[in-house]
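Ticket #4471: structure output looks truncated?

Reporter: J.K.
Steps to reproduce: submitted the chain below (117 residues) through the standard prediction queue, then opened the result file.
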Amino acid sequence: MIALLVATGAALGAPTRWWLDVVIQRRWAPVFPWGTFSVNVAGSAMLGAFAASWSEQSSALALFGIGFCGSLTTFSSFAWESQRLATSGARSVAMLNIIGTVGACLAAAALGWWLVA
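Returned output as attached by the reporter:
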């Protein structure tokens, strides 16, 4: 049952990530990967709030936290975009992406937790 909830959440989170990334990148198309940054920060805030709200055995945490937030956020795109920036000569932008994403995601998760706990 838990695996089905995680899969259902993931089936909703992945297309949401893709759609938000496309919308954000079309609106702001600079070198910096704002789409991936935005979904990672938003997903971290939501996961922090969900983790503070529900126990580890909760079906809601499996659906929304692990499934939805797990597929909404994307480490692989973050890593690839950072590497692409660095190898294309935009090393300062790559470092800004790495430091900014990690810092913002940690802060967002803590804020989500704090707002709910």
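Triage note (M.O.): checked the attachment and the full token line is present. The longest helix spans residues 2-27.
Status: closed, working as intended.
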